[in-house]
Amino acid sequence: MGNQSSQQKQKKNDEVHVKILLERLGEDEQTHIMKQFFDSSGSLNKLVSIDGFSQQCQLLLPSYYSEPLAQLFALYISRQFSSTSSSGITINTFNLRQCLDIIHSFLEGTTLQDGTQIGSADTFVQLYTLTAQEQKVSLQTFVSWIVQTGVQRWFEGSGRTFVDNSQQLERLVNNMLFFADEQQKQANDMDWLLQDDNTNTTRDKSTTVLWSHQVKEEPLGYLDQDATKQMLVTWYEKTIGFSILFKLVARTYFFGDTLGREPDNMHQSRLAHRIAPLISPTSNGNDNDFSRLLSPYDYFYLTLQLPQNALSIPPHERAQRHLAAYDDLTHERIFSSYQNGNSWQVFAHNIVKNQGATLLVIKAKDGSLFGGYADDAWVLETDWYGSSYNFLYQLNGSFSSYNMCGHWNATLNNRHYQYLCWGKKSLPNGLGMGGQLGYAGLWIESDFIHGHSKGPICSTYQSPSLCSQDSFEIDEVEVWLIRPMIRDENDDDGPGSILDRAEDMEFLEMAGKKLYSRDLEKPTSSTLDQNDNPS
After folding, report:
1. Structural domain boundaries, residue 524
2. Running along the chain, 535 residues long, what does each successive block of 10 average in pLDDT?
3. How many CB atoms lie under 10 A from the CB of residue 225?
4. How far apart are CA 413 and CA 381, in angstroms?
5. What's the pTM value of the predicted model, to 2 decimals?
6. HSE on the CB side for 7, CA within 13 Å?
7. One domain, residues 419 and 526
């Protein structure tokens, strides 16, 4: 009697637990899972073959999904739930609760039937441990499988065609593995200015060397030791980009392409970096021509640093922007020196005309690839201005021995976030981000040929020199409009003289067309009335 009561209580607990876990999934995801567990009577008590479940999952995988990863997921599920009965018969089935538990152990954590709590970091360690045992690969290789598959899945949301780039894949992987340690190393290198002893610095350096050595081993050593497992958990929890892709790869394995296409679902998925922001087609209509300078791996990395309002438009703002329900924020390339020419006038005019947050991408003739994000619109100013959401970045890896990309957020040391000036004899003419005039974190001269990025540390962004030398020559430039400003309906560019638009006058004078009438006072309405009604 007691045993029966205990079973009924467990069944009730399981039903509540299943309901909670199902509610955490999207409607399409719920349907996809539940239909595999209904029996002929419509009951959810059906047991499903683990091998059959994995085969069903693999049938729905996109063609680019890593085959070794698919095999590892299937093996992991089997190892978790297969058991042997007292008579020696292998039991290779699981119920809906067990299925949902294993799914959520990858996504956000869950409590297993025996009361054990398991988070996605723990599941990552278990899956990698299995990988190391079965396939003898390093953590670096395992991370590469996740990143290559995950970024392709993410980039599908952009509407553009994915083009692989092995060099930038490697740099993104290295960033995930080493960037936090590199930043700590740079901070330690500056500590000698503040500290009398270097005990902490020495300990941190030895830890960095140990981590660097272990992630490249075949496989990472000492996986049976608690200290190594905790080191992996700590790395996973602080490496947000990787944890996002790990969950996305797992979600794709379990649900295939079942991402909800309703506007609210798309909005939330973009904010969570499960799908990319929309990217506008190029002017020549070639989907493959996403960017001459950026790869999808670069774009994933850069969008991780963007504020949320630069990823998707919330429903309440769509009306303000006069967008249909299914429209969303679209990133648009507004300047390309390859297409628009190496012209400062065109470059400056485009970034001022297209008001909003922008991403600047520069390729120097020495091969350096770097730039900055400006959250405030570019305007003609004679002083520094901007937002602490700004950041600088470098993608080609020359700033570090680890050959990785990196970014540096704005600090509150000063407000020298961005600067744009032209046509002034008493001030430097050009575009700047961070530091000081003449010694900027990033600077483009108004000749649109030369620039500089001064090191060792920019006071505003705490960034190193972004190019291989302090000065550079421009090879190619792109500018992306990331978030257009919301225009007031009363503000328009309707009829009127060019004298009404100061920026247009500046551009004409830069082009060598002197406006002799610019200093004349604009006629008042009373003067116009007198001219229309002579006495």
Report:
1. 498-532
2. 70 87 89 80 74 91 95 92 57 84 94 89 95 92 97 95 94 92 63 46 56 77 82 94 97 83 79 95 66 96 97 84 81 96 95 96 96 97 95 90 92 97 92 96 97 94 93 97 80 45 51 45 44 44
3. 10
4. 21
5. 0.86
6. 4
7. no
